[in-house]
Design a protein that fits this description.
Length: 294
């Protein structure tokens, strides 16, 4: 009887024809896409959390430009005495110009009625009474405005949820395609050397031994392709690390700094997952093929 320990499964054509050679390449591409998608989910989640934190800890007071210096100083004193406000910063005209320049270009603020801006940092646990603060500001400068930034646009929330959903579906689809690719590769290999498979079957090779051999081979190919895809994803993330600062997104990894542990977790975790999916799918394909020959 031919058994697994005699290496009979090594004579199967999986990995020696074109389908076997393509499996690592396909797995590498799919792991690359799945890894980038998972890192994209991390970036989106961090961006959402950072934005919500900023919305709950930042306030802006707009004082009309025609307000006198005395009234402006009174407003600053009022803000510094308000419980829950931990920082008060009056923006200089040059700072305001830099904030507006990306949208309006260089501005001669001395010729435009641009209000004076006061940046506030608050303690979100202090329970600052914003309604009372607005009334106090209006009593000092009637046309002043307190912007709490806390209304997260519903359209933006929906957009973030849609992006997260698309990335999650893409990751799931990539992993599913790994399984399909492994099954197709095994089926193509078995169809290409049907006579050898029948001979092994007739000589008494156990179905479990043949299945185990193909599954182990697929595991090796899947792991190899997964490593290549994960390394390519890491290189891409490093190459794009500078883009996060340009669009003010949190970069999960930088060339010279320590990486976010979640990125390493994703890229190292997706490799064995890809290999196990390829192995399990190959085993299913072989068992189905052998069952049809019985």
């Amino acid at each position: 009887m031919i058994g697994y320990r005699f290496g009979a499964w090594r004579e199967l054509p999986l990995g020696t024809d074109q389908s076997g050679h393509l499996l690592p390449l396909i797995v590498a591409v799919l792991v690359y896409l799945a890894g980038l998608g998972a890192v994209g989910l991390i970036v989106l989640d961090d961006t959402r959390r950072a934005s919500e934190h900023a919305l709950h800890t930042t306030l802006t007071v707009e004082v009309p430009v025609e307000a006198s210096n005395a009234r402006l100083e009174t407003v600053l004193a009022l803000l510094r005495q308000t419980p829950g406000i931990v920082s008060v910063h009056l923006l200089e005209p040059a700072e305001t110009a830099r904030l507006l320049e990306p949208w309006l270009g260089p501005l001669p603020l001395d010729e435009l009625p641009v209000p004076r801006l006061i940046d506030l940092r608050i303690d979100p646990t202090a329970g600052t009474d914003l309604a009372a603060l607005r009334r106090q500001l209006a009593s000092v400068v009637p046309d002043s405005r307190l912007d709490d930034h806390r209304r997260w646009p519903e359209g933006l929330r929906a957009a973030v949820r849609r992006m997260e959903g698309i990335l999650a579906v893409s990751i799931t689809l990539a992993l599913s395609l790994i399984a399909a690719s492994a099954m197709l590769a095994v089926r193509a290999a078995l169809m290409g050397d049907r006579s050898a498979l029948k001979l092994l079957h007739v000589l008494g090779a156990a179905d479990s031994d043949i299945t185990r051999g193909c599954a182990v081979r697929s595991l090796r190919l899947g792991l190899f392709g997964g490593v290549v895809g994960a390394v390519a994803a890491l290189v891409t993330i490093l190459a794009l690390s500078g883009a996060g600062s340009v669009v003010e997104l949190p970069a999960p990894i930088t060339v010279g700094g320590a990486a976010d542990w979640r990125v390493w977790g994703v890229l190292t975790g997706v490799v064995p997952v890809a290999g196990l999916i390829a192995m399990a799918s190959a085993g299913v394909a072989v068992r189905r093929r052998l069952a049809g020959m019985s």
